[in-house]
Each structure stands twice: as C-alpha cells, then as structure tokens.
Amino acid sequence: MGFLTPMYELGEYLAWTRSGVIQLPDFQRGYKWEDERIRQLLVTVLRGHPLGAVMLLKTGNTQVRFKPRLIEGVDLPSETAAKYLLLDGQQRLTSLTQALSGDGAVATKDSRGKLLDRRYLVHMETALNDPNRVDDSVISIPGEGVVRTNFGKEIVLDLADHDKQREQGYFPLHLLYGDYMSWILELSDRELGKRFHERFIKPAATYDIPAIVLDENTDKAAVATVFEKVNTGGLPLNVFELLTAMFAGDADFYESTGADFRLNDDWKETQLKWAAYPVLTAVENTDFLQAVTMLATRKRQLADTSERPPAISAKREDVLKLTLGDYLELRDPLREAFIWAATFLADRHIFAPRDVPYPKQLVPLAAIKVVLGPDADLISVSERLVRWFWCGVLGELYGSTIETRFTRDIESVPAWAKGETEVATPRTLQDASFVESRLHSLRTRNAAAYKGIAALILAGGARDWMEDRALDKVQYVDLAVDIHHVFPQKWCNDNGIDDEHRESIVNKTAISARTNRVIGGSAPSAYLTVIKNRAQIDADRLDQLLETHLVNAERLRTDDFDGYFRERRESLCQLVEKAIGKPVQRDTDEGHAEEDSTQFEPANLIEDSIPEDR
C-alpha cells in the first residue's frame, strides 16, 4: 500500500464533490451532523484554523471495487465516474459542500434530533471588529431565511434575499467560493465590503486541507483497517458494510443481470426466511458472513494439493476476501442450516433469543450442518453434536477468541460426529470443564451456563406445578414461562439467606407466571399447600411435579433451605455431567463457593432483568 499527502485548497474540494470527482464508497453511513457542529466548522474555516486531514482512495483499483455514491446534496447522473473515494472526512466535506455552494441550504437536525434545513451567514461588522467574536458573528437561520418567534407569528430577522442581507450586514456563506464579488459590489458601505474581502474572503481562497491519498495498490483489508483507525467520530465499520459496497461493484454480476447486487437487501431476504424462528434474531449479518467464510476457505483448502494448503478461517481479513461467487454459492445452504440450528435449539428447549446461551456458537453449528448434510440428523451423529454443543455452553468457551475455536470446530467436529476413529476429539470437548462451585455464581442470564442449565432442566421433562403441562415450545409462550426462585426472595431475606445462595441457579427454575404468582413471597411449606389445594391434587402428585425440576418436595415442606440447596446442587452437577460426558469437580465446603463470582461473567454483556419474586 502506497500513499501521498498533498495539500488541496478547500475550493478544489468543493469543485470535486460538486462534480462527482470525489464520491463516497457505498459502505459509508449517511450524513448526520447537527446544526451547531456545522456552524462551528464554518467558524473554523473563517478563522483559518486547521480542521484535520481527509483520506481519499484512488479508484481504478482491481482489488478494491467499491460502488461509489455521490456526496449527499449533490445532484448528478448516477453513472458519474469518481476519481477518488472519500474514506475519512465525509461529515466535514458534506457539511462544507452544502453550506458553501449551491443555495447554501444544509439538510441537518437540531440538538433534539429534529430534521430541518439551515443556512449560514456571518455578520461582517462583528467579525471584523473583534477577532475573538468570529464565533458570535456566524449565525444559523432557517432555510427560508427568516427567523421567527412566538410560535412563528413574529419575525425577528428577515434575511430571505440578498438585498435584505446587505441591508443588515450579513454575508451569505454559500457565496464564499461563488459569486461573492457581485454581492460585495452592491453593498452601500463599500469600505465594509473591502475590509471583509481582505480579512475573510481572500484568505478563504487559499484555505488548505491536507489529504492522505491511498494509491491503486491498496487492498480491501487495508482499507477496512485504515477506515476504522480514522473513523473515531462515527459508528464502527464492520465487514458487512464493506462487502455491501464491494459486491455492489461486481462487474460480472452486473453484466449478467443488468443490476448491482445489494447485500443489505439480500440479508433482509434472509431474515424474512427466518421470521418463523425467533432464536435466529440473535444471528447478526456478520455472523452469517463468518459462516460463509469458513465454508469457502474450507473448500479452497480441500481443493489445494500443495504441501501448505490455505487455512480454514473466520477472521475478518478472510471475510473481506470473499467473492460474490463464494457468497451466492453458500448462501442458500447456510440459510437452511441456520433454520436447522433453530430446530436444534428447540430440541434443547431453547425457544427465545434471550435464552440462546451463545448466539455466536450458531456460526460453527450451521457450518457443521452444511458439511454433514443429511447425516447431521442421524441418531449417533446428532448425539455427538449435542454433546459438543453442551461442552461449549457449560464449559463457557464461546465468550472470547472465538474465531480460532470456530475453525477448530469445522476442522474436527464433522468427522468426529460421524464416528471416524482416526479423528481426535474436538478441542471444544477437550477444553470443557465445570466445577461445582460455579453453580453458586450462576445468577443471571449474563452467563451462558446459567441459560444452559435452565434449558437442561426444561429438556429433562420439567412440568408446570399448577397445570401439569410440559414446558415445551408452545406452553413456554402460553404459560409465560420464566426463571424464578424456588425459595422466594422475600423468604430468603427474612431468613438470612445470603445473596450467593439466594440468587444461584440452584435456587431457581422455570415456572409459569401463574405458578409464580401463587408462590409470591411465601415460605415453600405455605405455597405448596396453596398449589395442592388450587390444583386439587394429592401430595404424591405434587411431589412428582416438583421432581421434574430436580426439587425435593420434603425439603420444601420443612423449609429446609440448606438441605434443599445441597441436594439440588448435586442433582445439577449430575445433569451437567450427563450433558458434557465428563465428571464435575466437587469443590465446595458446606455449600460455600470458593471461586470469584465474577470470574466467568462476560464483561461486554448487559445483564438481562429477571422477573422479581414477591
């Protein structure tokens, strides 16, 4: 990658943006600067202060073929060819283009986000009399040129035409690089016009803005990296936006179809196909691209007969190397594979987006499904995939550095799942571990293992205590099932149960909203009687329903929290052991956890609210 650092005059930039010589790459987000920020930018120009460099990318690059679009406010034929693409400086150059050329009307917004048109003028006497008052001299007025008050009934300042502007001494800044001379010559105060020209208009003609110009050899990954480094004032760029622009510039697709490929529209179509599967709302467009990339790089690896074939990858730089052909080849199989992944989660009793332990784990899961094809549903293969899934969830392995784990999964899990004996056990299974004391610190949906254990309890046949209904996909919604305390918060607080034990997953289970209302804040011994009487069942039947949640009814009837906690903790350990196919390390002493309760909590997740028991 090579680059130059020339200086260009602001007038040149305005000519280039207005003529389409400078355009935006299609991945750039829309113009968003508010009124006051634009006004301050114009003050910077009038004072001759620097406003920072812009970054341009030369077009004609065979590696980077972004589809261009015009600077907002510029009206030219869509086929106008660009010489440079603006990577950094969009907000500044768009503001200057609209404010300093044409009619000077800028489509912006106020501090509250209300959309409006504004024009900018400078009061000449104020600017000339005191250099420290240049800021005060620049005003923003409505696009119609009239400032009103009293709900629009009274006119405070009327600058709607040039005569009124000259009469009141306000120079319209959209003429700063235009026909300012005609406006100046008609001023009644010629001396004022001369002074203003010397002090502000003349220096503006040589106002320079440095540029960093990337040459034709700059590759896609470099453009992405550079853009992110300089785009600190905006939202972070992701590979989806970059590929949107690159795919839109695919000449072969355009030649065959007569239209540009719109990745964003294609993603909307994907989401529409997934509309019946709520858990897939947790899948982001970049997740989908990572799955495509893994399968595309895997295909290249299998086709390469050299001693060092390319690696399977889900890394950003390899996502950026995707071609539109790669994407179109793998899109439909992956759309179906993610739908299959949604049914896989439903079979694990995971029905809602907030209950998905690791949305990112669906990336390798869908890719593995594409590799396995119909074999993924064979009993033996399916059982191994389920074990791999729970090892990832309960071992809490998809919270960081996941791209490397993704590639290891796609390399080893398909063959291992099919029982190929020469294949080593996948790393996710090797790395998974669980310690008993972790149950003490699983307290919110922040943790994947918290969601996982709740799902395992449901999948084990948990039934509602009031209506004896299986908490399956349909009933989960109909009964408004959620995770609630077994020993209610109020009872625990009244009886000195500490936060560690009260809020642990050991003291929680999934029950219906109706059952939770019956429980309220009562002692278990009291609410069990209410449940039995309202449901009109005997004690044995109620005991059986409680047992489906791994809850010992006798401990509840005697309000024995310590005994309950100890026994259910052991039951949950056995549940985990069955899921991951490994023993759980017992490391508690009389129910006291030894680990740091924040050890496993992902720092970048926002805690979901848990409905509060009374």
Provide a descriptive summary of the structure in words:
The structure is a single chain. The chain is of the alpha+beta class and 614 residues long. The chain has three domains: 3-112 and 176-212, no CATH class; 238-303 and 311-431, no CATH class; 438-580, no CATH class. It contains 29 helices and 15 strands. Strands 1, 2, 3, 4, 5, 6 and 13 form a seven-stranded mixed β-sheet that branches.
Defining traits:
elongated; alpha+beta; 7-stranded mixed sheet
Short description:
This protein has three domains: 3-112 and 176-212, no CATH class; 238-303 and 311-431, no CATH class; 438-580, no CATH class. 47% of the residues lie in helices and 11% in strands.
Give the topology.
Layout: E1 3-4, E2 7-9, H1 10-19, E3 22-25, H2 35-47, E4 54-58, E5 68-69, E6 84-88, H3 90-99, E7 106-109, E8 115-123, H4 124-129, H5 134-137, E9 138-142, E10 146-149, E11 154-158, H6 162-168, E12 170-172, H7 180-185, H8 190-204, E13 208-214, H9 220-230, H10 239-248, H11 251-257, H12 263-273, H13 285-303, H14 316-319, H15 324-347, H16 362-372, H17 379-394, H18 402-417, H19 427-431, H20 438-441, H21 448-459, H22 473-478, E14 482-485, H23 489-494, H24 499-502, E15 508-511, H25 513-519, H26 524-535, H27 539-547, H28 553-557, H29 561-580
Parallel strand pairs: 3-6, 4-13
Antiparallel strand pairs: 1-13, 2-13, 3-5, 4-6, 7-8, 8-9, 8-12, 10-11, 14-15
